[in-house]
Amino acid sequence: MAIAGADNEAGAPLLSKTVDGSVDYRNEPAVRSSSGGWRSAGFIIGVEVAERFAYYGISSNLITYLTGPLGQSTAAAASNVNAWYGTASLLPLLGAFVADSFLGRFRTILAASALYVLGLGLLTLSAMIPSDCKVANPLTSCSPPRFQVIAFFGALYLVALAQGGHKPCVQAFGADQFDEKDPEECKAKSSFFNWWYFGMCFGTLVTLWVLNYIQDNLSWALGFGIPCVAMVLALVIFLLGTSTYRFCIRRESRSAFARIGNVYVAAVKNWSVSASVVADAEESLGLISHTRSQQFSYLNKALVGTNGCSLDELEEAKSVLRLAPIWLTCLVYAVVFAQSPTFFTKQGATMERSITPSYKISPATLQSFISLSIVIFIPVYDRVLIPIARSFTHKPGGITMLQRIGTGIFLSFLAMVIAALVEMKRLKTAADYGLIDSPDVTVPMSVWWLVPQYVLFGISDVFAMVGLQEFFYDQVPSELRSVGLALYLSIFGIGSFLSSFMISVIDKATSRSGQVSWFANNLNKAHLDYFYWLLACFSFIGLASYLYFAKAYISKRLNSL
User: Fold this and answer.
1) Fewest Cβ atoms nearer than 10 Å: which of 55, 361, 366, 396?
2) pTM assigned to the model
């Protein structure tokens, strides 16, 4: 007995130095002092900087390439951009499923990075194919070689597939480096999501100032080739940190997908079971009657029977279902978010962009003000606003995740109102100077008028985007955190598809009987202001719906929201 007691005493310090539920790269218990934390997160944030540099090197100026070298109309190009972005935002659901069920996050990241490099390489080669379409011109059209179009879109969607495996897994893997059971690391994890987004936007900022200039003024092939090199560097950086990473281990023999699916199947099979039988099953398992247990009470029927589900499995299934109203009410925010790389960019192309007599800022570069405002505001938010709020609310994040998301949605509503007012002024300026029928002539209105809407977009992202990332990571079962982040990304995928659908419907509806489409190639005749006002109305309705469901939301962990 004395020997056993000595072993326990000797073992207690060892257990306190390891992280429960995590192993290192040698498959041994992860030692807290030599693994995880900001040491590992630094490598992973570095990877995200390089990956976002590569991704936005394509997406930020894609509409310019489509209306230029590929000769598409403004409406068709905007729809293609939204369709591609939507696909790229939905594919993380597939990547997360593969990671959480089969490969694990680390291996999925490696495979996705290799696909990324391949897709970017093919994209570069497609841009090197000679074409007669050189510059976007709203009055003329051209047809590039069919092979170039096929090669370009094939490579483009290969990048989307690679991003689908990379995006949810890298962020979830980064958050896994912090132990939520340790008070200090739990607080650091909340900051991780802020600094993750800071790093992501820093990479985007470099892209918008450097790559967009190269693409517009030097070479599209070079502009696509540099992101390819960046992804090679990202893969190298990621591998350098291997010895410091923590790897989560699965505690259950069955995957979380199987457990959750079993709850839904069992509930359907027991649909005709009486309430008294369900009550007996609840009592036998010790289920206490309160708001949490009675929400989605029809799923409680899954507890009945010899093969009934456990309480933990029931709660896992309910926690996923609770996310649906928040997911749905954030779709309008995603539709608004889709406008900055499309119509905002086309607006800027019509305006006065001269910085010096010999240099004009690229229209796509204006998106850098979103990233710049984020890069400036996140340190202020994380180091000033959160500590102040924390002193009043005593919450680790200062304000709740749902409050943070709601603030971002409200700011996006204001951004669309400002965008509509600025577009009204641009149209009036074009009319005053007799430029309605001269789309190739620069409207004598400074492009800096667009900056406020970009800045508001950036600040709204700090609240809504980061809040959604943390919310969907935190509120799903621990084994499904890649899927949780994929669900967050899918909001923007569906939002892009909705934006594309709206554009197509409105374009057809407003161009009938000889009328000018809201999205005419000649933006001086178009009415983007009407579209922005429509989005502002939808945004207000979406905000009201979000507030209603957020107030009724029941957290996975009591008092966490």
Assistant:
1) 396
2) 0.73
